[in-house]
Amino acid sequence: MRAPEAGPGLLPPAARLPVAAALFALAAALAVSALLGDSLTFDEAIHLPAGAIQWRTGDVRLAPDHPPLARLWAALPSLLAPVRLPDESTPGWSSGEFLLAGRDFFARNAPEPLLTRSRLMVVALLLLLLGLVAHAARRLFGPDAGLLALAVAALSPALLAHGHLVTTDLPAALASFGTLVAFAALARRPSAARLAGAAAAFGALVVTKDSWPAILPALGVMGAVAVLCPAPDAAVRLPGRPARLAAALGTAALSALVAWGALWACYGFRYETFRGSAAGRARMHVPVRPGIAPPADQEAAWEEVLKDANGAPATGAAAGFVRWGRARRAFPEAWLYGIALIGKMSPRIAYFRGVMGSGWPAYFPVAFLVKTPLPALALAALGLAGAAAGRARPRDAVLAAGLGAFFVSYALSAVLSGMNIGHRHLLPLEPVLAVAAGAAAAWTASRAGKVLVGAALLWLLGAVVLAHPGELGYFNEAAGGFRNGWRILADSNVDWGQDLGRLAHWARSHGDPEIHLAYFGVADPSSAGLKVVDAGSLYAFGPRREPAAGVYAASVNQLLGLFTPQARDEFWERPGTRAWYAERRAAARRDALPEGSPAREAWESAERGRLLNGLKSREPDALVGTSIRVYRLTEEDLEVLLGP
Hints:
The chain starts with 12 loop residues before the first helix and ends with a helix. The strands form two sheets. A five-stranded mixed beta sheet has the order 4-3-5-7-6. Strands 1-2 form a two-stranded antiparallel sheet. It is mainly α. Helices cover 55% and strands 4% of the residues.
């Protein structure tokens, strides 16, 4: 079928550049304004200290679960300011407990300047990714498609939310998409410069996040298309399939060699993890099985991290690869250890539609559907329909095949991973979705198509503006927005500790009351100017007292009991739990539970959990950001909420 002649398009040619510039400016403004308001999030407390410490000492013990390129990039500004580094007295330093060490790092150093500058480094990567999306869509479907794809990407709540945080998520999305674009460019016009660029892009991906194997099927598909169906307008055409196959295999070998070298470079061309005289006493983090003493040194940590939940030697391809690489010192120790650690930590507890567990095949499909704006999904569907109908015929078969294969392979790897802790793990799919949405520009040759695409863009713009600065907790209208989305997904989908500063602002505008706080986060509430009593926070902040009438604030993850079993419904539904609770409550009122005794501590933990469990179904008096719910409770309210 012959594609219809192009009409006037989405915009006059003279308007494209100003509109594109405005979209870049809008994305930057949204990301920067959000980063200035967001408090320290969980993974930032790991990655930024790890990067700053590696730059200054070469020690890579912190955050071994992913390679260091992203955190080294983000932590570059830390070299321009004095930074107090941890020492042997730092909690968690010698034992590799990265959250403890990270919290201590931010207690030693003023967090705001460091965090702001490092987040701006990630915003720069976000803008680069937007440019690549526009370039890819333009290459495939023309200038209007490039502009439309840029708009969808610039207004993506997921990209905006993670495009200003110091984590591996946005850098991995950029590295994945950049690798696909670079290899397509190499297939289209082979040259030494493009070969070096493609190999460097793949190397950057490998040293950014350990999810990189998900791109290999897509690169294989791209290579097959380049060998079997070379572009008729390619600038350089190798004669015959054997020559093209040899070139593809040579490219793969060179890329693997560059990635191997990049790994060693990022770890300082040293096998050992630790630096300094105390290296022999240090170890990296490892989850310890119940009843097992923590490892005394790194060798013991290796023994534990390569065991399964039952204490038997771990099996599988990853464990075998780690043992092989360690025996030969073929890769840096910390990178190998990180692969083993991910296996040790999987699966992790997660929340999905009212249930705690892990490994749900439906988790990521549902997350994709409820965390993606409906107009973006509609535009992507229109774009795919246009491609199927011949209206938006891809002009680069290798790139189109690579993007399609990557979407499928990455989505499958996420579904099969069992790591159901956040939609952010689907972030590399966002640029592909935007390119597919860009193909919807093919329908704008007609007046009806223009109206349809324009209405979708206005809807998308309105949704993002209304969600700002809470893009992290965004849920689309089908999920009931952020007010109800937390009943479907939790963890980093809603609550990563980002709203503590906004709670402080709320408190200042409401008389600065003392707040009974159940906070899911690592930032210190006192550093935000809050007066708090700890009411069941993940990490204890401030004093703990018996519940009393006043203002209560609870993070969504604490209400759901993500890491606090006593707050979960199933805890209170177990036979005998309520009777035990009533008995202990009566004993506590008679002062029959001595302070500091195990019985007293168990009762107080249950009481805090009981309160959170009751608040979960209570309508809040105020919502702060997307993750903190505020309640004003009387003594009568507490009597009801704390009753058995």
